[in-house]
TrEMBL record:
Part of the binding-protein-dependent transport system for glutamine; probably responsible for the translocation of the substrate across the membrane. Belongs to the binding-protein-dependent transport system permease family. HisMQ subfamily. Residues 19-210 form the ABC transmembrane type-1 domain. One of its GO terms (cellular component) is ATP-binding cassette (ABC) transporter complex. This is Polar amino acid transport system permease protein/putative glutamine transport system permease protein. It holds the Pfam family BPD_transp_1. GO terms for molecular function: transmembrane transporter activity.
Length: 233
């Protein structure tokens, strides 16, 4: 059988619509995961009951298969009267699991900060929230943003599972087109390209954000951690 992409022409509209839907659910899921990862990173790097609860959350969501989490949200919650449509189930599921993995990355960035920088800010009289907002998070995110990019790329790849809850994203649409046309090679070649484009877009976004966060950094091997932190303040 010859390779013929023209067989996809009548189906390009639903395939592109599926790709757009995947991009939408992933963009919202990544945004939610980033916010949740920031909160969890701060909590797990701290002490007390907030730290214990955050670690419990991280352990649960990192040790349960993503497909089980999706099924629980979509099929399980209605049993207790909580109904969420497929699109927002996808957004919520990606946000929850991405936050769990991303929280550990943010925590690592926070723990890498020179303690003297934070102590100097406290001695200088900065309120706790200002220390977090103006010193801790900017410095931590500089170190964490590239590893977070890997988490976000994995979220895009994991989104293919959402076709199992009737969401017409690109994988589910491609499966239907393949069954209709009996041309799985061409259809799944399109799917390969679609996910490559989506993940590459995420990587480009992360690279741009990394450059933005580090725009005031001096690229010198002799720069000390305290000097870097001082610029972040």
């Amino acid at each position: 059988m010859s390779f013929d992409l023209t067989v996809l022409t009548p189906h390009l509209e639903p395939l592109l619509a599926g790709a757009l839907l995947t991009a939408e659910v992933c963009a919202l899921g990544i945004a939610g995961a980033f916010g949740l990862a920031t909160v969890l990173g701060l909590a797990t790097a701290g002490r007390g009951w907030a730290q214990r609860l955050a670690w419990l959350y991280v352990d649960v969501f990192r040790n349960v298969p993503f497909v089980v989490q999706v099924f629980f949200l979509y099929y399980g919650l209605p049993e207790i009267g909580v109904y969420i449509d497929a699109f927002w189930t996808g957004v919520l599921a990606l946000s929850l699991v991405g936050g769990a993995y991303g929280g550990d990355v943010v925590r690592s960035g926070i723990l890498a900060i020179d303690p003297g920088v934070v102590e100097a800010a406290r001695v200088g009289g900065l309120p706790r929230l200002d220390i977090i907002r103006r010193i801790v998070l900017p410095i931590a995110l500089r170190a964490a943003i590239r590893p977070l990019g890997s988490v976000f790329v994995n979220l895009v790849l994991s989104s293919s599972i959402l076709s199992m809850i009737t969401l017409d994203e690109v994988t589910g649409t491609a499966r239907g087109v393949a069954a209709e046309t009996y041309r799985p090679f061409e259809v799944y070649a399109f799917l390969l390209v679609a996910y490559a484009v989506l993940t590459y877009a995420v990587s480009l976004g992360i690279a741009a954000l990394h450059r933005h966060l580090n725009r005031h950094m001096v690229a010198s091997p002799g720069v000390a951690g305290s000097e870097v932190a001082g610029k972040g303040a």
